[in-house]
Design brief:
The chain has 204 residues and is an alpha/beta fold. The chain is built from nine helices and five strands. Strands 2-3-1-4-5 form a five-stranded parallel beta sheet, with helices on both faces. Helix 1 (21-34) crosses helix 9 (188-203), helix 2 packs across helix 3 (67-91) and helix 6 crosses helix 7 (159-169). The longest helix has 25 residues, at 67-91. 37% of the residues are buried.
Length: 204
């Protein structure tokens, strides 16, 4: 994994589905824009790349594939995402906030029985974020939040699957640089306050 050598900062939000990472990414974007930073908010899987479109169908249970093939598609989509959105924005000195990145592949892929070594190798040429926030929210809370949205559940949105995923996520601060776990069960405002304090130090 390569360190970010560009003038911009690369921040990532991770967590089990329903942990609130999209909400916190949006709050951070709005906060930084008010502070006059140039910000790009983006998301994985993308809906734009060829691989991203295939992933969407698989996650929405319209198509089927093996766990390994899904992870190969995620890496292909990520390569496109970095080349077309993330790196050009960092070169321009913008702050890039991504809702999910390769840590999602590591957590969800490993929960499906793929070795972490294989997943890391698949993503080894990609950029390491300046900070990754993992939102720690119990699977039962995640599922109740997903149900409240009134949306169809996707491939991984089952309590026992999210249990496995969360357990794997919690090992990442020991294994990778710049990863922090945030208690995501507090109020939105309190969670954001914890994130804001960390981001303010990075941007000084």
């Amino acid at each position: 994994m390569k360190k970010n050598v560009y003038p911009g900062k690369f921040l990532v939000f991770e967590g089990p589905d329903g942990s609130g990472q999209s909400t916190q990414a949006e709050l951070l974007k709005n906060f930084l824009i008010k502070k006059k930073f140039k910000v790009v908010l983006t998301k994985e899987p993308t809906k734009t790349s060829r691989a991203g479109k295939k992933i969407e169908k698989i996650l929405n249970k319209k198509n089927k594939t093996s766990p390994k093939e899904l992870q190969k598609l995620c890496a292909e989509d990520r390569k496109w995402h970095l080349k077309n959105i993330i790196i050009p924005s960092l070169k321009e000195g913008k702050i890039v906030i991504s809702d999910r990145y390769f840590f999602s592949s590591f957590a969800y892929g490993k929960s499906e029985g793929i070795s972490l070594k294989y997943l890391i190798d698949l993503n080894k040429d990609f950029l390491l974020p300046d900070k990754t926030f993992i939102l720690d929210v119990s699977p039962s809370v995640c599922i109740s939040r997903i149900k409240k949205r009134g949306e169809e559940t996707t491939l991984f949105e089952k309590e026992e699957k999210l249990e496995k995923v969360l357990k794997i996520y919690k090992t990442f601060p020991q294994k990778f640089e710049n990863v922090v776990i945030i208690n995501g069960e507090k109020s939105k405002k309190e969670v954001f306050s914890d994130i804001k304090n960390i981001v303010s130090k990075i941007l000084k």
